[in-house]
Specification:
- The protein has about 300 residues and is of the alpha/beta class.
- It has one domain: Glycoside hydrolase/deacetylase (TIM Barrel).
- Helix content is about 40%, strand content about 15%.
- It is built from twelve helices and eight strands.
- The chain has helices at about 1-20, 20-30, 45-55, 65-70, 100-105, 130-135, 140-150, 165-175, 195-210, 230-235, 270-275, 280-290; strands at about 35-40, 60, 80-90, 110, 180, 220, 240-245, 260-265.
- Strands 1, 2, 3, 4, 5, 6, 7 and 8 form an eight-stranded parallel beta sheet that branches.
- Helix 1 packs across helix 11 (about 270-275) and helix 9 runs parallel beside helix 10 (about 230-235).
- The longest helix has 19 residues, at about 195-210.
- It is globular.
Length: about 300
Amino acid sequence: MRYLKSILRSLLGILFYISGAPVLIRKIKCGEKVTVLVYHNPDPECLEKHLKYLSKRFHFITIDKLVHAIRSGDWAMIPSRAAVITLDDGHKDNFRLASLFAKYEVNPTIYLCGGIVNTSRHFWFESGLPDIPPIKKASYAQLLQLLKESQGYELEKEYDERQALNYEEIKAMMKVADFQSHTKYHPILTQCDSTEVRSEIAGSKRMLEELLLKRITHFSYPNGDYSGREVQEVIDGGYESARTLDIGWNHRQTDPYKLRAMPIQDNASLFVLCAQVHGLFGYFKYAFHGSFNGVRPPLIT
């Protein structure tokens, strides 16, 4: 089934590319708006192909520049067809991408899990537990209990091999990348109780500021799930923006705590990349699920 989906995605990408739709979308939708792309753990060879393609069609800017323009109302410094590159989680292999960021003059934002970086702790979603989508509907406490019983996973357990960036790697990358917050342990925030939400959002900011000796002002919602409760906690926590996985482009009136994005498959072919960066698959996905945003009611208020 997964193989068939991959073939179908590739065929749709090819058809989308040869149709000329990407050029039209860039003129109509991307001209005065900002596209935010979301990666996780791409390999250098694939990402270089992506950046080569993107650099010919977009002007890279930083998340700081986008948020400043939204907050100030001054769009003069935003170039046409502007794009922001972001990566979620802070996987250790992101370090291999540093030379590409320098080569293509892109300063991406890497949203870090404050309780996992600079440790040998593991991401819960890489624990080997199958059927991740249904599991994401469990409460955070239920999820952790299930992971402990079935996989021996614990949040603060130190494993033999690390999965996230360490301090030395982050420090070395600061010349070419911006580091911000993605909670402490990457829970689905809408499945957490209010105390857990506050700890994850405010706690990650505090941990990263102590580790990196810099202000942490931007946040991204794990899995793209949020509700009004999470937005308020981000505001109360002193952040200036939060990136969602809501499909769309960003403009002057965009809520800085609900920045829209285009999720990109880490190993996407150029045809699939073309479709994803212009929102094709994202719109199909959200239309199919009946929602164009990630707002979910919190499990426990």
